[in-house]
Amino acid sequence: MGLLIVGVVAVAVIGLALVRTVRIVPQATACIVERFGRYHRTLQAGLTLVIPFIDRIKVEVDLREQVVTFPPQPVITSDNLVVSIDTVIYFQVTDPKAATYEIASFIVAVEQLTVTTLRNVVGGMDLERTLTSREEINTELRGVLDDATGRWGIRVNRVELKAIDPPASIQDSMEKQMRADRDKRAAILSAEGQKQSAILTAQGQRESAVLKAKGEAEAVVLRAQADAEAQAMRAKGQADAIAMVFRAIHEGKPDQRLLAYQYLQMLPEIAKGDANKVWIVPSEMNKVLENLGGLFSAPKDPTTTDQNGATSAG
Fold it and tell me: In what residue span(s) does the Band domain sit (predicted)?
């Protein structure tokens, strides 16, 4: 029975020794090994062996980039206004040994260093510059943190300001100022639009008046040209008619009676005018009447005898 117990104990000890000897380190993780309480080595990812009861794994360090959000911190600006600033730190452990032995808690150290650096940076700025200089604050914070945390085996990759919250009264004043600025810009844009509209309307009216005047002038010129051409054509027609009548009269060889008859036909036309209240009968009217009387008298014998008794054709 005693030998059985000794055998069981021996197997248990051997099994425990094997378990403590074989170590599997996950990817992106480093293990700090101490031998007799002192730093011995750093285990990398993979399968490794340690001496049981002599070597001890003190801590496992995550080598991935980590993101830490710090609670809002009150910071006083250069114009004595308290603002609340939230920060986010992106960092990565580059030296597991330094991160284990150089600082007790690097997370707390990074947080406190961030707060003090933020107060130093923002304390030299007024509120307006603080609200508009996020990139500048981020750059200064990263530079200071990277220099300070280098000996801790930590690299600060990025620092971001999540929010910068001024006091409620300041926010209300800023909103009123922004609203006034927007109203002012809107009024200016509206005035400029009305000005441009008035200018364009005036230009359009001027161009319309110019085109209308040009059109009227061209119309007057065309009407004058048309009237001149019409008068010229009428004058030419009248001249042609007069020439035709004159030529017809001369070719017809009219006698005195025909001319007298035409003269009587023109008398009613002369009397038609409203202004012709009085008109003068020419002294040749008696001769005209005699000729007309001869027109309507009986025709004579075509053969007549003159004073000398000679016979002639009428």
Answer: 20-178
Under the phi-then-psi rule, with left for phi > 0, alpha for psi from -120 to 50, and beta for the rest, what region is 270? alpha
Range of the domain at 90: 66-166
How far apart are alpha carbons 119 and 72 in whole angstroms?
12
Please indicate, yes or no, whether residues 255 and 292 belong to a single structural domain of this protein: yes
Report the alpha-carbon distance of residue 46 to residue 11 in Å, rounded: 27
> Are 175 and 155 part of one and the same domain?
no
> Residue 158: inside a domain, yes or no?
yes
Q: How is 240-304 classified by DSSP, letter by letter?
A: HHHHHHHHHHHHH---HHHHHHHHHHHHHHHHTSTT-S--PPPTTHHHHHHHHHHHHSPPPPSEE
| Residue 236 in domain | no
Domain identity same for 130 and 218: no
pLDDT at 233 over 90: no
- Per-residue model confidence as pLDDT tens digits over 128-155: 888 888 888 888 888 888 888 888 999 9
What digits encode the pLDDT tens for the residues 72-118? 888 888 888 888 888 899 999 999 999 999 888 888 888 888 888 88
Query: What is the total count of domains within the chain?
Result: 4
